[in-house]
Design goal:
The chain has nine helices and ten strands. By secondary structure, the chain is α+β, with helices and mostly antiparallel strands. The chain has two domains: 1-36, no CATH class; 38-114 and 166-260, 3-Layer(aba) Sandwich (Aminopeptidase), CATH 3.40.630. The strands form two sheets. The protein has a seven-stranded mixed beta sheet, with helices on both faces. Strands 1-3-2 form a three-stranded antiparallel beta sheet, with no helix packed on it. Helix 3 (75-83) runs parallel beside helix 6 (150-158). The longest helix is centred in the middle third of the chain and has 18 residues, at 115-132. It starts with a strand and ends with a strand.
């Protein structure tokens, strides 16, 4: 898109999504140059729209856990069918985007206010969609252990959405039935956008009747733990790994956090 400029009155007003740089040509005129690179301070939060899909999958791939990124494809491809695509396809009205100010998604929050209802919809709608996409459940004779065959492990999880219900810990669904995933590109992190995204979703979830929200984070991610603690999240108040760690809220490689709304 070519650079262009025009002369306008000094008192003109611009929407925050516009990007302009002004040069004075006297007391009444300015030269306005558009098409400048987007800046983080121009970003804002808005609802998800269908045209965001490709950008959101890109964000997922760029911000995925280190073991997923190290494995490359097909692991990242399968991962997007677990922790990204089902949310904006099945529950788009509680998905929010961090817009760079030029319409491009640079972060997102994928939220579910009622996890049991989401699992029901996932079984009925998303699993048939996954199969139409050419993804099949691992065969019974194939390993589905995370450390042995990661692609198979992800495909196996994909076909067992009941894992989201954490049936061994019924108090989780009873007291904190909402859940969320949040990812933001590195250049837009540490600017307060994550907090604003979570606050926006929590407000909506509370209005829709959720008593609380839960999320899972990598146990080794200390920075994420500090971030969620500042926002009022605490560990799920039970030892989840049969006493192996002795820590509340911890499974093998994850920590489950909860927040009452």
């Amino acid at each position: 898109m070519p650079l262009h400029s025009c002369l306008i009155p000094r008192k003109a007003v611009f929407a925050r999504e516009s990007r302009v740089e002004t040069y004075s040509l006297g007391p009444s005129l300015l030269v306005v140059v558009t098409n400048l690179p987007p800046q983080p301070n121009m970003a804002f939060i808005r609802p998800y729209v269908e045209s965001d899909q490709d950008a959101m999958i890109h964000i997922f791939r760029e911000t995925a856990a280190p073991d997923l990124r190290a494995a490359g494809d097909p692991v990242l491809h399968y991962g997007s069918y677990l922790w990204c695509r089902p949310y904006f396809l099945l529950q788009p009205d509680t998905c929010y985007v961090l817009d760079d100010g030029d319409g491009r998604a640079v972060g997102y929050l994928l939220g579910i206010c009622d996890t049991p209802s989401f699992v029901h919809k996932y079984r009925a709608v998303f699993i048939p969609y996954v199969q139409l996409e050419g993804i099949e459940k691992p065969r019974p004779d194939e390993s589905v252990r995370w450390n042995e065959n990661l692609p198979n492990a992800l495909r196996n999880i994909m076909f067992h959405p009941e894992g989201m219900l954490h049936e061994d810990w019924p108090e989780l669904m009873k007291s904190w039935p909402a859940h969320l995933h949040i990812d933001i590109l590195p250049e837009y992190q540490r600017r307060g956008f994550g907090q604003r995204l979570i606050e926006r979703f929590c407000e909506v979830a509370k209005k829709q009747g959720a008593k609380g929200v839960h999320l899972g984070m990598a146990a080794a991610n200390d920075d994420a733990g500090k971030f969620y603690t500042r926002l009022g999240f605490t560990r799920f108040p039970a030892v989840l790994d049969h006493g192996a760690s002795g820590e509340q809220g911890r499974t093998e490689g994850a920590i489950w956090l909860v927040k009452t709304l």
